[in-house]
Specification:
The chain has about 180 residues and is mainly alpha-helical. It has one domain. The protein contains eight helices and six strands; from the N terminus they run ααββββαααββααα. The strands form three sheets. A two-stranded antiparallel sheet has the order 1-4. The protein has a two-stranded antiparallel ribbon with strand order 2-3. A hairpin with a 3-residue loop joins strand 2 and strand 3. Helix 3 runs parallel beside helix 8 and helix 4 runs antiparallel to helix 5. The longest helix has about 35 residues.
């Protein structure tokens, strides 16, 4: 696959994310937890993308984080890394990638067994525990088995993926500008 085809595929998959049901239902996402001292926890009121929309979004999103995929952020970075130092596209992509990785390594509001979960741990465990491969199935099921944690965890997944979507948008804009200047002369 040529570099041009890789950037075009990146754009195609990014557009799928931007037009997805997940993206259309992202605004107003949240969860309300109610507790009554006599009745315990009431059913949670979670707003935002439904479970199927989240899964569908993640199936496409994982193309950007799975190193075996040609459009992964790491593989796209290799293309930019080959450009000369001082290249604007290279610097913009590297800076955005650094911010994205810092975000992914930052902590969520969720603490499990005394440890705060990072955004990366949350998303990886969801992907590999409920959506794909299922090698972390037991771990993810343990997380969501505790009432009211299921809706809190899904709300955090939606929040983190919503921010990841914004990063994909920035990466894609850099890529499209690079495509125009490199191939469309």
């Amino acid at each position: 696959m040529s570099e041009k085809e890789i950037f075009e595929l990146f754009d195609e998959k990014a557009q799928e994310l931007f037009k997805s049901n997940f993206s259309q239902n992202l605004a107003g996402s949240g969860v309300t937890i109610q507790f009554n001292k006599d009745k315990g926890f009431a059913p949670n009121l979670r707003k935002g993308p439904d479970y199927e929309s989240i899964k569908s979004f993640v199936i496409t999103f994982r193309n950007f984080i799975l190193d075996s995929d040609p459009i992964s952020i790491r593989n796209i970075a290799k293309i930019y890394d080959a450009l000369p130092d001082g290249n604007d596209f290279k610097e913009r992509f590297q800076n955005t990638r650094k911010k994205f990785n810092e975000y992914m390594d930052s902590l969520t509001i969720i603490e499990y067994n005394g440890d705060k979960l990072s955004n990366r741990k949350l998303i990886d465990t969801y992907i590999y525990g409920d959506v794909i491969h299922l090698k972390k199935h037991d771990e993810f099921k343990n997380w969501i088995s505790i009432n009211p944690m299921k809706d809190v965890i899904y709300n955090e997944i939606v929040r983190v993926l919503g921010i990841c979507r914004k990063y994909i948008y920035v990466f894609n804009e850099i890529n499209k500008e690079y495509l125009v200047t490199s191939w469309d002369r």
